[in-house]
Amino acid sequence: MEINIARDFDPYPWGRPQGRDFREAILIPNLKSISGIPGGRLVISLDGCRMLGSSFLDEAFAGLIRKRIIDHREFDRKLQIISESPAMKIYLDAIKKYVREARPET
Q1: Which among 18, 59, 65, 82 could bridge 102 via Cys, Cβ 3.0 to 4.6 Å?
Q2: pLDDT one-digit tens code per residue, 43-72
Q3: pTM of the model
């Protein structure tokens, strides 16, 4: 299953509120839909986005860990974040950092 943020959500995603909305409306339902599929993986493409706010990325992706939706191992197993554009590498690296540093809320 593939989600393209620009096409399926917004080409200019930014801010924590949009990050929360993306996580709640798109990521979580799609993660649930692949939960029963052995080896199911959700591919998220950044292609087409004109900009990506750091707070959006943190809230959307690291928020999955903080809100205990999935843990770090599940994140790596169930999500693949991609882009064909070299300009998006900075965002891919930022997502990895935010997720790596995320801790579940108590």
Answers
A1: 65
A2: 999 999 999 999 999 999 999 999 999 999
A3: 0.94
